[in-house]
Amino acid sequence: MNKEHYDKLKEIVKVYLPEDVSVEAITEESNFTQELNINSANLVDIILDVEDEFDIMLENDDMNEMQTVKDALKIIEQKLQEKEN
Amino acid sequence: MEDRVVITGLGVCAPNGTGLKEFTESLEKGISGISFQPDLADLNFGCQIAGKPTVDNDLLKNYFSDLQLKDLKASGLVYGVIAGMDAWNDAGLTRAEREQPEWDNGVMFGTGVSGVDKFRDSVYLIDDKNVRRLGSTTVIQTMASGISAYLGGILGAGNQVTTNSSACTTGTESILMAFERIKYGKAKRILAGSTSDSGPYVWGGFDAMRILPRKYNDNPTQASRPMSATAAGFVPGSGAGALVLESLDSALKRNAHIYAEVLGGHINSGGQTGEGSMTAPNSEAVQRCIKQAMKDANVQPTAIDSINGHLTATTKDSLEIENWSKALERKGVDFPYVNSFKSLFGHCLSAAGSIECIGAVLQFQENKIFGNINCEDIHPSIASLIAQNKIPQKTIDFAPEITAKASFGFGDVNACVIFKRYKK
After folding, report:
1. Angle at Cα B84 formed by Cα B254 and Cα B102, nearest 5°?
2. Which of B175, B353, B416, B366 is nearest to B259 (CA)?
3. What are the beta bridge partners of residue B268?
4. Which of B69, B129, B132, B133 to mutate to test the interface with A (most CBs of A within 10 A)?
5. Domain boundary assignment for chain B
6. pLDDT tier at A62 (50, 70, 90 boundaries)?
7. How far is CA A12 from CA A20, B70, B133, in A?
8. Can you tell me the ipTM of this complex?
9. CB atoms within 10 A of CB A14
10. Phi, psi (degrees; rounded to nearest 5) at B281
């Protein structure tokens, strides 16, 4: 896992946490909607923030696969690599 | 049996005061909230002045979470939430527990448009084939009922939650809609009011119609001149006003502070017939609206001791005074005191009715009639109808008992509400 990317993602996700969920609750395994209780409408915003932060573009399929923090990190790495190639 | 309806909470976000204290002081001292707007000047507006509430970031944080503030670009939502939450707190009410809605509490909060700046951003993104970048809040910021939806959620309201829209009568209409719902026992408490966005995209159309003053860009506080011979058009305004309407029973049970009683009112339209048009009122309808309001409230014309007019500072002000005079069958020294708060904050469009109703209700509390500024030169046709001392140039000591307040709007629509000082 890329620590720098993980920290950046945490910063993004933090904003969308409900009041009763703290930043400490975020782990690699966290499911965005089921465990972190993030409003599913806000997943759209998280994706836009990820695109802006990492200067990548996510496709509809990527969005569907992005259930957990780990999924998101995987997609981010993949897109960054595609960009380099 | 019909319930009596009283006002138990007020909240305001006006160009000359955010919060009741500042607003009351501004009305009493004649402090104007109209100022030069650099963005309107940059965009080559003829009228480069407006009334816009001052809302800084620290204040915003008292009302919105960081998440709500993210990409929030709907000024009307901001003003409406501030006014609405203030009114609810002022009434001594709290929000519902999350588990269950409060079935007896509703929201009737009007607006003309919502989130025009957000809508503008969206249009650019969509035209750029970038609809996927709109984010999740475009709909709730730009739907007309965004404001009632926001407030309904904050309150946990379980009764009717809706947004009304009737141009510049919107705010007064929302109060009367709430009044009727409570009167007929369908709700106990309703947060009523209205809001209006700020900015060039709201005001531009009026500038294009050439109905805004163009000669006061260097002298903003003198621009809004209701009832004056030199009235040059209305100054565009914005903001929000909120009132908690409550059944008298409920208010007494809670031992709530009661600002005033809503005795009744009337809403009608001139149907754009006769002299009435999309932009001009049919006088017969205006007079009928006032008369029917008095009938609904069961008060005689002679009982009305104060009027808060619509009086926007256009050539129609004289006609409005004439209509009041005919409807009340009173003139000269027999005419009630009359004022227009628009001299201090301009015409707040869909928010005008609610903000001005709050001012009218505050007059009971303060035992004052707040003064009109910028009408030292009363229009001759107004001066020929009513005594000049009935148009106070400065705030006077007077304890009003019954106030009639009217609002009129594009589409030839009218609303008139009758407020009464509450006595135990």
Report:
1. 50
2. B366
3. B414
4. B132
5. 5-260, 265-420
6. confident
7. 17, 12, 16
8. 0.85
9. 14
10. -85, 150
Query: Six-digit token pair at B405?
Result: 């307040």
pLDDT in tens, B356-368: 999 999 999 999 9
Helix (H) or strand (E) holding B28: helix B20-29
User: Closest residue of B to A38, CA-based?
Assistant: B67
Rg, Å, chain A Cα set: 12
Angstrom CA distances, B354 to B30, B84, B195, B358, stand at 19, 11, 8, 6
- Residue B97 pLDDT class (50, 70, 90 cuts): low
Give the residue among B395, B384, B276 at the shortest CA–CA distance from B343. Answer: B395
One fold for both B5-260 and B265-420?
Answer: yes
Q: Is the pLDDT of residue B96 over 70?
A: no
| Tokens 């305001």 -> residue | B12
B109, B147 Cβ separation under 8 angstroms: yes
Q: Using the Cα atoms of residue B137, residue B138, residue B141 and residue B144 in order, give the sign of their dihedral.
A: negative
Has residue B98 got a pLDDT over 80?
Answer: no
Checking phi first, is residue B169 left (phi over 0); if not, alpha (psi -120 to 50) or beta? alpha
Which DSSP state fits B329?
T
Size of interface A-B (CB pairs under 8 A): 16
Stretch B192-201: mean pLDDT:
98
Q: Taking CA B260 as the corner, what is the angle to CA B259 and CA B263, rounded to the nearest 5 degrees?
A: 160
Are B66 and A19 within 8 A, CB to CB? no
Closest C-alpha among B114, B180, B223, B172 to residue B409 = B172
Q: How many Å apart are CA B400 and CA B337, to the nearest integer?
A: 9
| Structure confidence at residue B186 as a pLDDT band (50, 70, 90) | very high
Fold topology of A3-84: 1.10.1200
Amino acid letter at B268? Answer: N
Alpha helices in B298-379 (DSSP H): 317-328, 342-345, 352-366
Cα(B10)–Cα(B6) distance, integer angstroms: 12
CA distance A41 to chain B (A): 6
Instruction: Tally Cβ neighbours within 10 Å of residue A74.
Output: 15
How far, in Å, CA of B170 to CA of B185, rounded? 23
Domain B5-260 sits in CATH 3.40.47.10: yes
Per CATH, which fold does B265-420 belong to? Answer: Peroxisomal Thiolase; Chain A, domain 1 (3.40.47)
CB A73 within 8 A of CB A6: yes
Length of chain B: 424
Q: Which residues of B touch A (CB under 8 A)?
A: 65-67, 70, 133, 135-137
Q: Give the residue from chain B lying closest to A43, CA to CA.
A: B136
